[in-house]
Amino acid sequence: MSGINLFKRKVKKNHMNTAFESFLKGFSIEVMPRTAEKIKDFRQILPSGTRVYIAHIEGTPINDMVATARRISDEGFPVMPHFPARIVKDRKTLAEWIARYRNEAGVEQALVLAGGISKPQGDFESSMQLLETGEFGKAEFKRLHVAGHPEGNRDIDPDGSNSNVDAAIRWKQAFSETSNAEMAIATQFMFDPQPAIKWADNLKKSGVNLPVHIGIAGPAKLQTLIKFAVACGVGPSLKVLQRRALDVTKLIMPYEPNEMLDCLAGHKSKHPESNIANVHFFPLGGIMATAKWVMQNGGDSGRPKTSKDSA
At what angle do helices 238-246 and 222-231 cross, to 10 degrees? Predict the structure, then answer.
């Protein structure tokens, strides 16, 4: 049981406060089939009930996706695979993928998004088109998450505005009012909390009341984060990393999301009505690095059930 030693590490006392721990409660984490293979047993590193997203990258066989979902589900975790519209060939393929996840892995949740490729490989271009098919409803999926872009998205709005992004969120809000599934918004990872707070507040003012799960980059080397930020189009937040890179004392130290989460947790504590509801971790520096950080900083919200607890 190699993971048990992780629990003996000291928690950073400056983050053991009620607001911080409460905000981390119910966090989710994202994996890929190839990264999940490196984890011997997720029960040793994640709290019971942690939602595990499985990213479907272009070129990943559906067999690998379903096998990963089945393995993680068998270990007792709710699994939420990605359904990127632009890599789904047609409605028949969508129905087949949904059926395989449902029947082979017991999956009843999905993150529905456009996907990171510019040219669709089949009939679908947007998450809205996938939702419109009604296939998730037919399969009685209980939870559907959709993508959110607090800092905008150049692929969706090439002119730099947020008009298409905003229209899509309004459409998803309307869809949620007719769907039997619970819905929420999962955002891209960010490094500056203020745009996320402002965006979420503006959503609520405009009548969009879907819960928002804020994307957070887990601990990683600064160079790694900059590479992912550029590749994923994280524009405004990139400035935070660039400023950090200018500080030699910080350049040699791994980035940790303490300041980002401190700010978000404080905001949620002062404004409990905010639709910022949960944290979603992108483990860009590795699943283990993120899991260790949560164990050390999240109090009871971040600790997995040990063999001692279950005895």
Answer: 150
Residue ranges in the chain assigned as alpha helix (H): 18-24, 33-36, 62-74, 91-105, 127-132, 135-138, 163-176, 193-205, 222-231, 238-246, 248-251, 258-270, 287-297, 307-310
pTM here?
0.86
Q: What is the Cα 177 distance to its own chain's centre?
A: 23
Condensed to tens digits (0 to 9), the pLDDT of residues 290-306 reads: 999 999 988 888 999 76
d(CA 242, CA 231): 15
Asked if residues 148 and 190 have their Cβ atoms less than 8 Å apart, the reply is no
Residue 146 maps to a domain: yes
CATH number, domain with residue 23: 3.20.20.220
Number of domains in the chain: 1
Contact indicator for 129, 86 with CB cutoff of 8 Å: no
Angle at 31 between CA 47 and CA 44, to 5 degrees: 30
Query: Which residue range forms the structural domain that includes residue 234?
Result: 2-302
Nearest Cα neighbor of 282 from 236, 243, 227 is 227
CA dist 155 and 45 (Å) reads 35
Q: How far apart are CA 50 and CA 116, in angstroms?
A: 25
Measure the CA–CA gap between 22 and 57, rounded to whole angstroms.
32
Interatomic CA distance for residues 68 and 71, integer angstroms:
5
Per-residue model confidence as pLDDT tens digits over 80-122: 999 999 999 999 999 999 999 999 999 999 999 998 787 899 9
